[in-house]
């Protein structure tokens, strides 16, 4: 048979599969309605396991694995359809709808905002871009920022969550497990690092460099040119500049922003020392209350997924089935819970999308440890 004849045969098979798929979905929905009317659980793990075993036996050794994948996805799609038709609006979905209605049309131009670090920190630069006239409260640690927001001392907090060169700021993801806050906006900030010293310091004099661990990772190429150098991590790059200035030493340098040179009376020994000129850090703005501003097209979710084969796949297939674009997936271990992880998902979809609300409602009803972290837009 030539290729055209083979393709015609495939088309005919696909038409049969389409009709059988529609029929199966209709019967599946009828079963779900019967279960709901009689107070029976929709999900029957034993039934699905037996079905997969039966299908695997019928498929034979050559197609067994493919058939299990196919039917696993088919059953997940069936449950999604059942949920779409039968599910009542959840409390979370009503909270999201209420937030959309009650949040002001414009993001505030001024507010009391918590940032980690000191004057000149990149968090402060991000804050100045997010708000026209922020009143900034500087905190000693990232956790203090969360605490300031949760306690109501500050309405918002600004935190770095990932860098295009050095990757995720794991501490922020870990703190998100412990503090129930909402993400209301994000910002992508281009980050340029400089080598700052006290006046009169030469490059050959430097024996120690201070900065944040992320900055060290972002400037690793320059660091490799120093021999027998001491690397001292600190809480943020602006603090590193302050420490160098207060030390009075001429054998020490800070990796910080160029703006910190003027602020702390330091010399800019070398500028733009980051590995990549396209070096961006993504910041999130958190709030105690759920606020969803117009144009929100990115949603963050957090959930604990069972530690068993196929558990993550069964979540991911829902994004695919509903046409959701997953732009970020991060996992973090849960302290004191062996081999259990919290997964963070960033989804690119308008908050007004029915498919997104369906996804959130499905996940909330089926995953015991599920949290909606907010829907927001990202500034560039």
Structure description:
α1 packs across α2 and α2 packs parallel to α11. It is built from twelve helices and 16 strands. The longest helix has 42 residues, at 45-86. The chain has helices at 3-37, 45-86, 91-102, 122-130, 142-151, 170-178, 213-218, 220-223, 237-247, 259-263, 311-321, 354-366, and strands at residues 112-116, 135-139, 156-163, 167-168, 182-190, 194-197, 208-211, 230-233, 252-256, 267-271, 280-287, 298-304, 325-333, 341-348, 370-376, 378-379. It is 44% helix and 24% strand. Among the domains are: 3-86, Chorismate Mutase Domain, subunit A; 95-103 and 294-380, ACT domain (Alpha-Beta Plaits, 2-Layer Sandwich), CATH 3.30.70; 194-271, Periplasmic binding protein-like II (D-Maltodextrin-Binding Protein, domain 2, 3-Layer(aba) Sandwich), CATH 3.40.190.10.
Main beta sheet, described?
A: 7 strands, mixed
Which topology of the domain at 95-103 and 294-380 does CATH recognise? Answer: Alpha-Beta Plaits
Question: How many β strands by DSSP?
Answer: 16
Helix content: 40-55%
Shape: elongated
Poorly predicted residue ranges = none
Structural class: alpha/beta
